[in-house]
Amino acid sequence: MSGRLARSFNELEVYQLALSLATDLFERTRSWPREERYALTSQLRRASRSIGASIAEAWGKRNYPRYFMSKLTEADSEQLETRHWIAVAANCGYLSRADAEEFLDRLSVIGKMLNRMLEKADQFCRTP
């Protein structure tokens, strides 16, 4: 973004990272066992996709700081839930420890960015 204000949610680095993570997790889960389709696979995909979706919703709520912060908090909650499902997948042997750590590191970056956005919400919100 090179120091200028974003004009759209898809210009936010945190959104781009969340979208990339969700896409990579989707690809990784394609080979998981069929019996996990409606359990672990579905839960992990849903939680990871919800991070970016909540960021997009937060952007749309910028006229209302409390709603903006609520949606960013949801994004962070989904990030934490995704961490849980990655740990379960690693424990079940569907992800190597190295792959799990790589995804967890990416989630840590996203979580830190979301928390910085929450701390500086006034810089993102516009007054109606």
Automatic annotation (TrEMBL):
InterPro entries: 23S_rRNA-intervening_sequence, 23S_rRNA_IVS_sf. Pfam families: 23S_rRNA_IVP. It comes from the Bacteria. SUPFAM superfamilies: IVS-encoded protein-like (SSF158446). PANTHER family: FOUR HELIX BUNDLE PROTEIN (PTHR38471). NCBIfam families: four helix bundle protein. This is Four helix bundle protein.
